[in-house]
Amino acid sequence: MTGNRDSLTLDPQPFPLDPSMRLFEGTPFDRPPRCDRCGELESDCACLPEPPPRIPPGKQTARLSVEKRKKGKQVTVIRGLPAEGNDLPDLLKRLKSACGAGGAVKEEVIEIQGRQVENVRVVLTQLGYRVRE
Q1: Are 83 and 27 in contact (CB under 8 A)?
Q2: What separation in angstroms does the CA of 52 have from each of 15, 36, 49, 86, 114?
Q3: Looking at the domain assignment, is residue 97 inside a domain?
Q4: pTM of the complete model
Q5: N or C terminus: which one in the chain shows less Cβ crowding within 10 Å?
Q6: Does residue 89 lie in a domain region?
Q7: Contact call for residues 1 and 8 (beta carbons, < 8 A)
Q8: What is the pLDDT of residue 133?
Q9: What pLDDT sits at residue 37?
Q10: Which residues of 27-53 are buried (b: 16+ CB within 10 A; e: fewer)?
């Protein structure tokens, strides 16, 4: 501020701007982010990403159905289990070995070759899933 007491005017630049000064200098916002686990800078961190949280089987309902494919082939289809929060490839592996049949995971749908509804129901119930047809 300049001038006398009666006429106060504000200087357009009250203090000289120093290019080395930063807005949040010395505060937590000034420091680059660090990893919570290893303490390294996030750009240099080598930690593996945390796995997504698992959904307990008791809170999920698997919907079973049998569909016909080309040339009259039947496929047991399992829907209603989200890919996020489940290990669908591991579940497919267990179902295939229990049924003695092939299968695949397509998007969020598990397919088991043949009419395997009863075998799939038994395995899913043993794992703790709720099952509907």
Answers
A1: no
A2: 51, 17, 9, 9, 32
A3: yes
A4: 0.64
A5: N
A6: yes
A7: yes
A8: 85
A9: 85
A10: eeeeeeeeeeeeeeeeeeeeeeeeeee
Residue 79's CATH number: 3.30.780.10
Print burial letters for 75-95: b (CB count within 10 Å at least 16), e (below 16): bbbbeebeeeebebeebbeeb
Q: How many distinct structural domains can be found in the chain? A: 1
Q: 82 and 43 in contact (C-beta within 8 Å)?
A: no
Asked, for residue 4, whether it belongs to a domain, the answer is no
DSSP H helices in 3-83: none
Cβ within 8 Å of residue 32, ≥6 positions away: 41, 42, 43
d(CA 78, CA 132): 10
* Alpha-carbon torsion, ordered 79, 64, 56, 109, to 10 deg: -20
Structure tokens at 26: 């010395």
Coil, strand, or helix at residue 20?
Answer: coil
Are the beta carbons of 96 and 89 closer than 8 angstroms? Answer: no
> Residue 75 is which amino acid?
V
Q: Is residue 13 part of a domain?
A: no
